[in-house]
């Protein structure tokens, strides 16, 4: 973490405008390390800043992923669902919290109809990939 902090002190706010890509990756790394060090309150502040500064949908999704993970480890189920819903809305994903069986089957049919004869290919990196792992319900709920 000293590397993250040293760069932040050296570059300051200008780093966000002159080297956004590096600034974001370093700030995300610092937030990740802070989260993994169980300094959750500090990590939440860093994530809030990342969400404000994120200039691309992929960067915003990376910050949401970390926010969701924070809520999972803190067992903040209500805040977890709010963060997931916010991320889904931002990414244009309409995902009800409790879809009925009919809704799930209808979406499944719609997906296959839209796919047609095309093959499913995995893109290099997408915004949805950044936090899609966060959709696993905590504690099997």
Rg measurement, Å = 18 Å
Number of helices: 8
Q: Mind describing the biggest β-sheet?
A: none
Shape from CA axes? Answer: globular
In N-to-C order, the SSE pattern is HHHHHHHH
Beta-strand percentage? under 5%
How many β-strand runs? 0
User: What distance separates the N and C termini?
Assistant: 34 Å
Structure notes:
The protein is mostly helical. It has a domain at 2-94. The longest helix has 17 residues, at 20-36. Helix content is 70%, strand content 0%. The chain contains eight helices and no strands. The two termini are 34 Å apart.
Summary keywords:
141 residues; mainly alpha
Show the helix and strand layout.
Elements: H1 2-11, H2 14-18, H3 20-36, H4 40-53, H5 57-73, H6 77-91, H7 101-115, H8 127-132
Helix pairs in contact: 1-3, 3-4, 3-5, 4-5, 5-6
Question: In short, what is this structure?
Answer:
By secondary structure, the protein is mainly alpha-helical. It has helices spanning 2-11, 14-18, 20-36, 40-53, 57-73, 77-91, 101-115, 127-132.
